[in-house]
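[Automated response] Your request has been received and processed.

Submitted sequence:
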Amino acid sequence: MPHDQAFWLPFTANRAFWKSPRVITGARGHYYTTDDGRQLLDGFSGLWTSGLGHCHPKIVAAVQEQVATLDYAMGFQVTNDKAIALAREVATLAPAGMNKVFFTNSGSESADTALKIALAYHRARGEGQRTRLIGRERGYHGVNFGGLSVGGIPGNRKVFSAALLPGVDHLRHTWSPADMAFSKGQPAWGAQLADDLERLAALHDASNIAAVIVEPVAGSTGILVPPIGYLQRLREICDKYGILLIFDEVITAFGRVGAPFAAARFGVTPDIITTAKGLTNGVVPMGAVIVRDGIFEALMQGPEHVVELFHGYTYSGHPLAAAAGLATLAAYREEDSFARARGVEPVFEEMIHSLRDAPNVVDIRNCGLMGGIELAPRAGAVGMRGFEVFLKCFEAGVVIRNGGDVLQFSPFLDSTPDELARIFDTVRQAIRSVA
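Generated structure:
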């Protein structure tokens, strides 16, 4: 294989890719530039990451200044000023009573960190038998072994199934096409699906369950929106049995659903929140785990000189990432991004649902500035129709994402009606062309 094909792309059909590479060389605002000089409208704002737009000048300046001031500082027994400042800003945005922030480098690391904190918390309280973890079918919590174990996307799990964590079970997923198809926002039907946790509590004995982890809106699997009352019911059952509730907000935090966190949008406060992506606008890799004060306090025992949680990463709280995070949070405030996103929502909802009559469309789902159009799979070639639509859109100058046969959309927080119209006009033509 030639050296110019040395890069092994993630979550990509590599053999097909190298026959016709799609290479981005620049970006600004809402557009990418390709290696052949074309301008592409980004309909996915990076990878759920870049809600403020690409190469935001204030974030770029903050990173440039930081790399010339402090490029790296050891993060064990020492820290840097930017990490301290960013933790304070994140805690300010978080739900009341969640004031401790542990930095990671990705959503995958955030998920594994949250699971470890949950196990450590119960052990510190004298309930070390609480080791079972509950995820959800079709859930996505990254690709490290912890997150993969509680995740519920079969394609991600099957090759690694023999090495996944023991003591994990899954709630049923929340998509019922017979009851929810073409819902706008939260489906009215389905709150009772949360009662599946009661079944697992009875099966495993609730006193053995440490935590339940769910995405408030399941993103990567195709935008599965929580039914009205579903998250509230999960919270009630977790409280009933002393189980920690973890919200994976790697996608939903920082304006994606028109609020700092989906916890605020849906009015449900979990015990732990995982984040990444929008924390730095995607500029520098970073994640964070936000925990309820009582969880942190439960671990603060024993001799003061002894490490309380034997966990962390070389790059936890990296100064460049923290500087990018501080500039990103400042930009959200200054540009009133979360409110602007709420203002864009009705236009986005109307336009995505306008494709209901397009060929082979079997469902459309949306919440905040997250949307999915599900296409009927082609016989004997599941995922091919969705991939072909992605390619057609790319060729026409618009970037979307396909997860199998679900077309996924994650527009910028300040997207304009004209941009959204261009995206969905392009998608409509692409769907027709591959029908």
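Summary generated for your ticket: Residues 107-124 form the longest helix (18 residues). The chain has two domains: 3-55+336-433, 62-334.
If you did not submit this request, please reply to this message.
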